[in-house]
Q: What sequence folds into this?
């Protein structure tokens, strides 16, 4: 079954390896996107898991000084172009409608940005990222920035004035606004203004109370605004203790109960997580998930969740 996965952090791993092995030593043996075992989403694993389209987030860790963040963003964009897109039959998706034109052997790669920190308060940098192909913008990571507050640094405010400009710029370019990581006040502002909205990697807070998950009311607002809620595989967002694939079902059930059968999708967070769901440890294991989803929900629902809902909504 074909998969669209709306979040992974492979670019950060590729950038860190590039800096380590190329810039700071004589060892030029760079991590290969084709088959490096350090990567949950390498090219071989994406093929093995029948991932048709993988989103790749530019993500700058909080510890990077603001003055260096733009450089880091460009380095990760460079890894996307030089390493990911260099893989055989990998195709850069510059508009979502191109997904349906992919040939059987091709894998679509989507560039995204997680965290407006990368462009500071400079809308020109944001436009530059859009021109490089960024199709989805996560306004924040967990920390607050010049646009909004994150789920881990909630000062109780919504968007800044600059944040409103950022939303308008996304609307102008047809870019998705990703509300995963956003605080509730920021979420409410975005919902009222954004043309295209998605939570690329979040679960249901009514099932497990974690700041990275979405309240029932937020899920309903996403559904009412033609958005998507894409289930994330990071165990700390699913339940306490060890996590199996079936532990995702209550989250799925809740989103469906709220009316989101056609708004639900997948956003693994592979390469950004350090704990894993049993039997779902990398993109190559996606069939373990789709088999279990099919057993429980049927093939029609599973296919819609894995692929069709995104296509119908955004392509
Ligand atoms: Zn994230």
A:
């Amino acid at each position: 079954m074909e998969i669209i996965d709306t979040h992974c952090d492979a670019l950060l791993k590729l950038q860190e390896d590039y800096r380590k092995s190329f810039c700071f030593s004589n060892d030029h043996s760079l991590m290969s996107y084709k088959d490096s075992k350090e990567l949950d989403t390498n090219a071989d694993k994406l093929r093995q898991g029948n991932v048709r389209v993988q989103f790749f987030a530019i993500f700058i860790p909080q510890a990077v000084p603001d003055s260096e963040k733009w450089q880091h963003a460009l380095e990760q964009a460079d890894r996307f172009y030089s390493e990911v897109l260099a893989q055989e039959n990998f195709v850069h998706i510059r508009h979502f409608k191109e997904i349906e034109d992919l040939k059987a052997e091709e894998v679509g790669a989507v560039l995204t940005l997680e965290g407006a920190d990368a462009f500071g308060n400079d809308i020109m940098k944001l436009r530059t990222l859009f021109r490089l192909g960024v199709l989805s913008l996560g306004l924040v990571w967990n920390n607050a920035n010049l646009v909004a507050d994150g789920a881990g640094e909630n000062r109780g405010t919504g968007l800044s004035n600059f944040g409103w400009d950022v939303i308008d710029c996304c609307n102008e370019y047809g870019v998705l606004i990703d509300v995963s990581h956003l605080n509730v006040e920021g979420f409410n502002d975005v919902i009222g203004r954004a043309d295209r909205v998605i939570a690329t990697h979040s679960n249901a807070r009514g099932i497990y109370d974690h700041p990275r998950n979405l309240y029932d009311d937020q899920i309903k607002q996403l559904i009412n605004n033609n958005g998507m809620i894409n289930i994330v595989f990071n165990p700390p967002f699913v339940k306490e203790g060890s996590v199996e694939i079936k532990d995702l079902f209550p989250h799925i059930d809740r989103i469906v109960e709220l009316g989101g059968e056609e708004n639900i999708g997948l956003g693994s967070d592979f390469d950004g997580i350090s704990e894993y769901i049993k039997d779902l440890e990398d993109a190559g294991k996606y069939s373990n998930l789709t088999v279990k989803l099919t057993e429980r929900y049927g093939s029609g629902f599973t296919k819609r969740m894995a692929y069709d809902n995104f296509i119908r909504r955004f392509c």
